[in-house]
Amino acid sequence: MPKLTIDGIEVEAEAGMTIMQAADLVGIEIPRFCYHERLSIAGNCRMCLVEVKPGPPKPAAACALPVAEGMQVWTQSDLAKKARKGVMEFLLINHPLDCPICDQGGECDLQDQAMAFGSDHSRYVEHKRAVAEKHLGPLVKTAMTRCIHCTRCVRFITEVAGVPELGMIGRGEHAEITSYVEKALTSELSGNIVDLCPVGALTSAPYAFHARPWELHKVESIDVLDAVGSSIRVDARGNAVMRVLPRLNEDVNEEWLGDKSRHAVDGLRYQRLDRPYVREDGTLRPASWEEALRAVAGRLLATDADKVAALAGDMADAEAMVLLKDLMAAMGSPNLDCRQDGAALDPTDRAGYLFNPTIAGIEDADALLIVGSDPRWEAPILNARIRKRYLKGKFPIGVLGPRTDLTYKVQDLGNDPKTLEALAGGKHDFAKVLKEAERPLILVGMGALARPDGAAVMGWARRLAESVGAISDDWTGFAVLHTAAARVGGLEAGFVPGEGGRDTAAILDGAEKGDIQVVYLLGADEIDTARLGEAFVIYQGHHGDAGANRADVILPGAAYTEKNATYVNTEGRMQRTWLAVHPPGEVREDWKIIRALSAAIDKPLAQNTLDDVRARLAEVSPTFADANEGAVVPAAYKAGAGGTGGRLEAAPFASPVTNYYMTDPISRASRTMAACTDVYINGAGDGDSKKRTGTDG
Amino acid sequence: MTAAKTIPESDAADAPFAFNEASLAEARRILAKYPEGRERSAVLPLLDLAQRQHGWISRGVVEAVAELAKTPPIRVWEVVTFYTMYNQGRIGRHHVQICTNVSCWLRGADEIVRAAREVFGVEFGQTTDDGTATVSEVECLGACVNAPMVQIDDDYHEDLDYESAKALFHAIRQGHAVQAGSWAKRQCSAPAGERSTLTADPTTPEGGKWIAADSPAAGASAGGAK
């Protein structure tokens, strides 16, 4: 543990730390552009120059110089100040003075540091260079003249995103950041390079010229577009969400965010259900809340309880689900299910449906088998964590599933579910790899569980985990990767069939045959609505998607940015969103709608406030206790609880996510996501966006 | 100097490239110098090899080298654009590189440039109509002692003036063989005329003065410089 002094303050740093890291320990801020704690060290911006003794009589780059015993560092000496001022002058030589029309203005590292460390005037009188814009896809807008060549974007795309497509070409004055052949970045994490860019060279294309940072009010919330539950900050102006940015959360998303979670928010403005509707003579007509609730109540009261069913969708919050569950119980109907994809998840066995090792725990694993999942599209943030572990080395990864180009090297085990039997029986080469590992991890996706033989797959996967020693006192190497933000919350809240009740498949069968006469869809859109038959359909949700299209009554509920709601991510981590903007029109929070409906059918629920509902949630499952917010309540793994596995079908696993950019009503309504779909899924439109006018029209 | 550019997509169709048998054998020999997993170290020699076969670095070359060096094409393209000696465009049969940096310029590089313009009839960066030669302007090639100089393909032609440069360029244009080295018939970078220093015999007391006193040679010379 070398001891050194920085600005006279004694610091005890770990061996191998750099001066910059040591300074961060004691809260001394050294300015920087290229250095980023999650990327490799480049040392090319020179902004972090400090005076160091002993050493050569010139300033040294704090980001790249390891600490040594007895080192003396000055960050505010005349030498250091003069060096930084000089570096800043060089950086500004070719940097345009276009801050007033630059989207980075107001949140620009260069702007801030030029104020703090730069000179008050420029001595540069030559022409500034201009650099052609680059085309990096529909999400990243470029203004490369502003680039200061810190190479953070290059390092992020290469190291974290794992798609080495960006580079710095040329040298000296002619250096430019570009992709190899100019085409859209094929990464689901490309939006992060906008955050990383310390200047305005890379800015968010969908957000271009929409708002200034000081006009926005910022609300810390949780993402619900996948089951990872990334921490986000919602930036809104007035009552419109302008953008979503990631928020630091070491346990979940570090400081990254997937492109869908970041850019699908424009979908919150389109296709919204902003008032109740009632179907009359085959068409939906706007109605008042009273009318709509009366129509629903009338129908519910006139139908036998066992002919009523409820399905919860992928973005339903736990509050609404627990109230709807209680309401169904009050009516006497056992037909409810939150697994609208029909995944074989046993609600009574928590360890059987959670990502037990936790996302951060992936870094502790030393072998991984992915079964029937495409983490790159189902949870890009989690995939980045797998890549992070992979880069540390000695991490064999086997994939038994639909996709193998996951940004890291994998052993392709094919896509035959029967391979699981061989693995569990120890008859497969990769079983040995898992057995030899100390902390093997078996990751099971929805592509493996949401199929007719899902229960058998679950059984075999658990047998495999148990047989290779993935379960021990300090390590539960069995992980279920969900695709829906609501799923775990629904299972925890008990939104599953009661005794003798129907599950999703049975509800749809019943509706088709006429045995189920009323179906309550709580934001459920990913079902085959054609199978709802003649049933009376109530849709509660925020977007005019599949469910609303088929509905007889629409009860408009709030989206995740418009309510304080509880979600549980795939790890079992209970997290809450915060209201960032008020719901549009006559939209109400979901739990209130159900509470009002309970009164309309004369079975009023006891919960009158959000606190009451949350107390009820905590009663149902300790996961929801206020004290557990943001934390994972670990589940005890019961060996053998998954059964022994049954007959596996030969059909290959297929991921439920066939288009990363459109998986839910919000992203389907988003124009940005439509543009991404065009470019990345349909391979079209890529050429058109090159035809820029240069006026940023 | 050619400015770096993003590699155009169409290049792939324009210039297909595959290492021929001889190059491939050489490439394997180069790759064998580096430990497994460090194939990327071979990018520079592999690019040189490919350029010798193909004349310039096309997208096809970048991709073939990237494959051999087990590295993403963008990493190879970064290298290509960093070094001016890799040609980013098609060139003629001969590459005439004229140094116009300070030493050569002081010694009359402008005259060499004039001679080139007259003989080849092209500007810097252009190729003659018949494809004989491409003329480029380069920075210092490290032969300042023999300035002004021109590099043609792998050879240096030094101590040029307008007349000799013209003769040299005519020979190139007409496909005649030319002798590399000093056109003033200097031996390497030895003085152009008579020696002006170190003229005395180093083994005599006079000549031995430049030998350090504690050198064994100092003792060997009679008396030395004590």
TrEMBL record, chain A:
Residues 79-118 form the 4Fe-4S His(Cys)3-ligated-type domain. PANTHER family: NADH-UBIQUINONE OXIDOREDUCTASE 75 KDA SUBUNIT, MITOCHONDRIAL, RESPIRATORY NITRATE REDUCTASE. Residues 2-79 form the 2Fe-2S ferredoxin-type domain. This is NADH-quinone oxidoreductase. NDH-1 shuttles electrons from NADH, via FMN and iron-sulfur (Fe-S) centers, to quinones in the respiratory chain. Couples the redox reaction to proton translocation (for every two electrons transferred, four hydrogen ions are translocated across the cytoplasmic membrane), and thus conserves the redox energy in a proton gradient. Keywords: 2Fe-2S, 4Fe-4S, Iron, Iron-sulfur, Metal-binding, NAD, Quinone, Translocase. Its cofactor is [4Fe-4S] cluster; [2Fe-2S] cluster. It catalyses: a quinone + NADH + 5 H(+)(in) = a quinol + NAD(+) + 4 H(+)(out). GO terms for cellular component: membrane. Gene3D superfamilies: 3.10.20.740, 3.30.70.20, 3.40.50.740, Dimethylsulfoxide Reductase, domain 2. InterPro entries: 2Fe-2S_ferredoxin-like_sf (IPR036010), 2Fe-2S_ferredoxin-type (IPR001041), Mopterin_OxRdtase (IPR006656), Mopterin_OxRdtase_4Fe-4S_dom (IPR006963), NADH_UbQ_OxRdtase_75kDa_su_CS (IPR000283), NADH_UbQ_OxRdtase_ferredoxin (IPR054351), NADH_UbQ_OxRdtase_Gsu (IPR010228), NADH_UbQ_OxRdtase_Gsu_4Fe4S-bd (IPR019574). Pfam families: Fer2_4, Fer4_NDSU1, Fer4_Nqo3, Molybdopterin, NADH-G_4Fe-4S_3, NADH_dhqG_C. The keyword NAD applies. SMART domains: NADH-G_4Fe-4S_3.
From TrEMBL, chain B:
InterPro entries: NuoE-like, NuoE_dom, NuoE_N, Thioredoxin-like_sf. Transmembrane segments: none annotated. It comes from the Bacteria. One of its GO terms (molecular function) is inorganic cation transmembrane transporter activity. Belongs to the complex I 24 kDa subunit family. Pfam families: 2Fe-2S_thioredx. NCBIfam families: nuoE_fam. Its cofactor is [2Fe-2S] cluster. This is NADH-quinone oxidoreductase subunit E/NADH dehydrogenase (Ubiquinone) flavoprotein 2. [2Fe-2S] cluster binds at C99, C104, C140, C144. The keyword Hydrolase does not apply. It comes from Rhodospira trueperi. Residues 192-226 are annotated as: Disordered. Binds 1 [2Fe-2S] cluster. It catalyses: a quinone + NADH + 5 H(+)(in) = a quinol + NAD(+) + 4 H(+)(out). One of its GO terms (biological process) is inorganic cation transmembrane transport. One of its GO terms (cellular component) is organelle membrane. Keywords: 2Fe-2S, Iron, Iron-sulfur, Metal-binding, NAD, Translocase, Ubiquinone. SUPFAM superfamilies: Thioredoxin-like.
